[in-house]
């Protein structure tokens, strides 16, 4: 049975893409607020709405973030992964490129959740659900996003934006007009996910 609401929603859902390079076309504040207003309508545990949406437009801060992210990542590669000097240089090149792509967007949004919320043990769910709304609302307005967990390491994000200990970091996403919309990555068939009634 045709249903226009479903079709419109489905078009946004299917059209959302992880976008790793952006144009410098401006993102008006009004659009950022519409996107975040949609994010806050996500369900949350006990309806606590434990979110903070950190919005960043300052280029100098983004440059600081780039430097901190590369430093933290390379430290990790050196101390925890025991990479050789050559591997580190390769990592520096690829990671700097990845980060430059993310930071080519005019706006960054970090989704944080309050660890002091009553139902804090569910806060990551609350954060992820807000992120889903954010990404879909952004797509509906023509913007790309990334569900960015640790491509830009949390340590770097916390350091550069002075995030208080009280807030748990969930994701950092750019918001911007894509340089181009990536091809949709292949999806598994619906059948491969389905289990009816019980596992045999
Ligand atoms: C939990 C999670 C973590 C992710 N982390 C990153 C990330 O750190 N960097 C990145 O570029 N993409 C990240 N992604 C995006 C996925 O790579 C992407 O969603 C997937 O390849 C499907 O592509 P699509 O989003 O365009 O449909 C993440 C996605 C999820 C759900």
- What compounds sit in this structure? flavin mononucleotide
CATH class: Alpha Beta
Give the percentage of residues in beta strands.
5-15%
Distance between the termini: 32 Å
CATH architectural arrangement: 3-Layer(aba) Sandwich
Question: What Rg, in angstroms, do the CA atoms define?
Answer: 19 Å
Task: Count helical runs.
Answer: 6
Query: Per CATH, what is the topology?
Result: NADH Oxidase
Order of helices and strands: HHEHHEHHE
Q: Could you explain the architecture of this structure?
A:
Helix 3 runs antiparallel to helix 4 and helix 3 (59-79) runs antiparallel to helix 6. The chain is of the alpha+beta class and 200 residues long. It is 44% helix and 12% strand. The longest helix has 21 residues, at 59-79. Strands 1-2-3 form a 3-stranded antiparallel β-sheet, with helices on both faces. It has a single domain, classed as NADH Oxidase. The radius of gyration is 19 Å and the shape is globular. It binds flavin mononucleotide (FMN). Residues 17-18, 20, 146-151, 185 line the site of flavin mononucleotide (FMN).
SSE topology sketch:
Layout: H1 4-15, H2 29-39, E1 51-56, H3 59-79, H4 85-102, E2 107-114, H5 123-140, H6 154-161, E3 167-175
Antiparallel strand pairs: 1-2, 2-3
The chain binds flavin mononucleotide (FMN).
The site of flavin mononucleotide (FMN) has 10 residues, from loops.
Give me some keywords for this one.
single chain; 200 residues; alpha+beta; NADH Oxidase; 3-stranded antiparallel β-sheet; 3 strands; 44% helix; 12% strand; binds flavin mononucleotide
């Amino acid at each position: 049975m045709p249903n226009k609401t479903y079709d419109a929603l489905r078009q946004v859902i299917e059209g959302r893409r992880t976008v790793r390079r952006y144009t410098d076309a401006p993102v008006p504040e009004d659009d950022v607020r519409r996107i975040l207003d949609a994010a806050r309508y996500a369900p949350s545990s006990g309806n606590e709405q434990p979110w903070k949406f950190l919005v960043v437009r300052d280029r100098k801060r983004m440059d600081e973030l780039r430097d901190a992210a590369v430093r933290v990542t390379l430290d990790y590669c050196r101390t925890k992964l025991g990479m050789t000097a050559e591997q580190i240089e390769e990592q520096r090149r690829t990671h700097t490129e990845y980060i430059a792509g993310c930071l080519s967007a005019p706006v960054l949004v970090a989704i944080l959740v309050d660890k002091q919320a009553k139902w804090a043990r569910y806060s990551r769910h609350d954060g992820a659900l807000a992120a889903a709304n954010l990404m879909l609302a952004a797509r509906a307005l023509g913007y790309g996003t990334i569900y960015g967990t640790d491509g830009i390491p949390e340590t770097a994000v916390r350091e550069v934006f002075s995030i208080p200990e009280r807030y748990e970091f969930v994701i950092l996403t750019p918001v911007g007009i894509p340089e181009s919309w990536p091809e949709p990555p292949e999806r598994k068939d619906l059948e491969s996910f389905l289990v009816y009634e019980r596992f045999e």
